[in-house]
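Task 17 of the worksheet. Students: predict the tertiary structure of the chain below and write it out as structure tokens. Keep your answer in the requested format; marks are given for formatting as well as content.
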Amino acid sequence: MDAGRKRHQMFAKRVCGVLMLTVLLSLIPSVSRTETTSAFQEGVEYVKLRLYPQAVDTFKAILAQQPTNVDALFQLANVYKLQDELELAIETFNQIFTAAAEIKNVPPSTAERIYGLTHLALAEIYCKQSQLDIAEQHAKEAVERSPAEADTHYRLGYIYTHQAKFDAALAAFKRTLARNPDFPEVYEWLGLIALMRNEPQQAVAHYQTAIEKKPYVQSAYYNLAKAYRLLGDMPAATEQLKHFHQMKAYYDRTYAIESALAEEPLNTTLRLELAEIHLAHKHIAAAVATYQALIRLHPNLTVGYDKLGRLYMNLNMSERAIPFFQKVLELNPNAVEAHVRLGWLYTKSKAFDKAESHLQTAIKQMPHLSLAYHGLAEIYTQQGHIQKAIDVYQHLTKIEPNDDEARKALHNLERLKRSSQTTP
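Model answer:
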């Protein structure tokens, strides 16, 4: 058991930074004396973009005017935590208890939630500092104050796992899943506990669930391979190690770029490269977030809107794609490709007038753009305007004699026209 605990502690040290949860922006308590200001929203945007010095300045400016603004205190403390300025984070989180007590007419349930989330954040920090006894006390307070929050039970289970109190950890994780069944990190720790108890079959089930819910965490593949080895299934173990190395390469590349972006947050080339890497690994949410960050940092850069529009097109999400191509044209009315893509998207949604307008504009700008003619003919065909579609294809075959697809479509339409004329 001692050897097992040592192995567990080494593993925990290695993955602690990777699996540590951060307090989500959506969990921030909203009890400021005034409505959320534009300055506060600006600070939140800085946090999302990892522009931490600007975020610190913004929240400090708010607090200079409103010293008991709990939202700003919470955000400022969170920024310190993200910067690994942990003592400042602890000091600022502790100020929330005093500030919340000074706010009048706060419903008891809201106050409890503030205290609960603040204790949760402190528990996370003390975990990061390996002060597990202090972390445990804060986690217990968080559970007592905010029992409905899955994160509070998860943090307590996380701490118990690191203390090798596996029965207590399992109970905490069970409560977590009762509140949020789609909590991938829980299944990873359940898998680890199963491995520590020499229950490889259970470990396999837990790690498979973790990967299904969050397929981009490399440690899950490594430990799944370990579980298969313990079961004597070497082909399965080899396959999971292969996935582990793929995910590790992916993680290493993205980590390197994100580290570079921390130094050069306005570097467009790096953000585009990061998004492409995410797309290559089918991590769509990360790619979308990267393009969104690019747009926020460079609101007049067409490439960000174009990339997001194309991404949503590929996902067959036309309604989401359209506004991005419209923004491209707002910034650059001569962007022919955006006109063509909008022509296709509007055709798909049966908005034929809009589709025709965009394709006609594209043709005016590039009279030999065969793709636009194909799109225009498709519009007329869907509307039943067969002769107009024939006219388009006849023109296209004159300017592009080698367009076999246009010739075939023209032949089919002419045959359809003759058939309709001879039908009584």
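Marker's comment: The chain has 22 helices and no strands. The mean pLDDT is 89.
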